[in-house]
Amino acid sequence: MTNSPYEVLAGLLRDQEASGADLYAAACEVRECFVRSEHLIGLLPADAPRLLTAGLTRAGRAGVVEAWLELGRLLAHGAAPWAPYPEQDVPASIEAYREADRAGSLAGALGWVRIAYFATSAEHEQDAARRLDELLAEHPADPDVLLLSGYLRFRGYGHPADPAAAVPFHRAAAEHGSGDAAFELSVLHATGTGVPADDDESMRWTMRAAELGSVRAMGNLGYYYATGRGVEHDPAKALDWYGKAADAGHGKSAYTAGVMCLTGDGGLPVDERRAAEFFDLAEELGVDVDDHLDAMGLSRA
Fold first, then answer.
1. Which of 39, 121, 204, 281 would give a disulfide with 116, using CB separation of 3.0 to 4.6 Å?
2. Could you report the per-residue pLDDT of 8-39, keeping only the tens digit for each?
3. Which residues sit opposite 83 in a β-bridge?
4. How far is 82 from 280, CA to CA, in rounded Å?
5. pTM metric for this prediction
6. CA atoms of 271 and 14, how far apart (whole Å)
7. Cβ atoms within 10 Å, residue 25
8. Are residues 40 and 69 in contact, defined by beta-carbon separation less than 8 angstroms?
9. How far is 111 from 97, CA to CA, in rounded Å?
10. Rounded to whole angstroms, how far apart are CA atoms 178 and 146?
């Protein structure tokens, strides 16, 4: 009988000679068990999160940089929206990413600076700003470095708060392919923050952000076409953009697309099968579909 991923990882952890590569591979298999929701049906022992963390830690100490990156991600975000395991531990996440940074990983450096920024960690503020300035000097055309440099200046994390100072960084990041930076520019132009308010420019950047893969921009375009805000009312285009956002992991868009298919919103043909697919996806992404439908006076087909 084949051992389960949990049993394989447990065995490797008992083996003092186990390689980092084997530990990392086994830990990733256990992570996938969480993604498949095996923890919800009794197929994963209660200590599986601890085992997963231990496996990645040993793999990282054995020189597998990817293990530190994965551990940092898991400690910040969990295995999946429906599997918040291992338990969130922001300081430990930062430290895991910093281990990858010490090993020369740009992803590790960006990882801990990003986590510290979004957690508004006062402890790491000055170190994070200093490290990001170093990365900016080393990688002046990297879109992720540029985007994060804009964030820090916009909010005032390790730098004076100055929305106008953030704009050139977001623009440069967008020009180098960052959908998130393009989306930020759409918001800044919509609100007149750091730049003159300009609805046309905001829409242009929203379109560009969606083209570059920004999930938030895709969802916004779905809303714009559904309501006719800034564009011609077009339910078919709205459903298309909501669908793209849903496929990219946006739960609210998946739910909205499901409702459009269920009700034939805007004259669209009713498609109960497709509605069910969107609702299933929305649930996977953490949306309580039935409660939302009930509040609208609707129910699944």
1. 121
2. 999 999 999 999 999 999 999 999 999 999 99
3. 80
4. 13
5. 0.89
6. 53
7. 18
8. no
9. 6
10. 9
